[in-house]
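Subgroup meeting minutes
Present: P.N., E.W., G.H.
Scribe: E.W.

1. P.N. recapped why we're keeping a running log of single-chain structure predictions: easier to compare across weeks, and new members can see raw inputs and outputs side by side.
2. G.H. added today's entry (215 aa).
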Amino acid sequence: MGLGAMVFAALSAALASGLRALAVQKARTQGNEVATQGIEDLQRLSFDGLVVCSTPAGPVPTGLETTALGTNCPSDNTGYGEDPCNALRPNDAPAPSYTCRRVSIDFRVRRYIAWTDAGRTAKRMAVFVDWTDSAGPHQVSQQSSLRSPTEASIIGASIPSLTLPSAAPTNVPVTSAGKLTRNIALSVNATALGTDDRVFAKFLTLSMPPAASRP
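Output recorded in log:
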């Protein structure tokens, strides 16, 4: 009887451990599905519509500090915000945080939308999902990005322009090796350029026949 009790105790412990591992794996699968649902909900939006009215509570993850805030958000955000788990309100901006309850576990979702460059030509989306099960706390995340399809969609920044280009002098001889014999001063009026923008100039060299052989 004692030996049988020891065998049954060992089998019970193994069974409990297996069930616990299965439950943890099931919760992780659900967490990944919630994260996928959250990021796909953001990906359905156009570049202009990809904004939030506030940020989730707590510290903002590195690289997501410059939040893309909407300009038509209500002053009171109570009850406002669309999320794919509870509130299917397509006319609202995406909810920055919400909770999905699955397999008797609360999955806490935080969503961030941030500008990725000074010129505001691209946005970064990130979804973080946290939950606690029998094995302890867990977190999964998914991220994506979207670039502006047109110049008109760059919100908050003017369209860059280059005007009044000039060069002085305009006629400079070159050596047989193709090098300029004098310096040329180039100038152009540039507006709305970002810190990462660059302006390049190209030279057109014309070969002229000697003066004695010209018509």
